[in-house]
Amino acid sequence: MAQNQEGRNLLAIIGDEDSITGVLLAGVGQVSSNQKKNFVIVDAKTQPSTIEAAFNELTSRKDIAILLINQHIAEKIRPTMDKYTQTFPTVLEIPSKDHPYDPSKDSILKRVQKLVGD
Hints:
By secondary structure, this protein is α/β, with parallel strands linked by helices.
């Protein structure tokens, strides 16, 4: 069953302050007329339930094509990440300045490896 990607033209991000700053400086930030942002800043005090709520809200929006999430933040909501199977928005785990990317933790990469039989 193909999903409709029409109208999906935003990039969203859930990340640490440095990652968000970089994306905003690149001109990706957007605040809609009803004050919905396409970015969520996560720090050490942010509860996993808050991260999960942000993930669920951003993945349910019809205007987002790609959701970037720092991998170390994705680890805090790994069960939710593993359950997410929608094509749009596509969820990509990215490294941060202080946390390198670990392919063995990436739920999307694990799914791809399972499909190709690796």
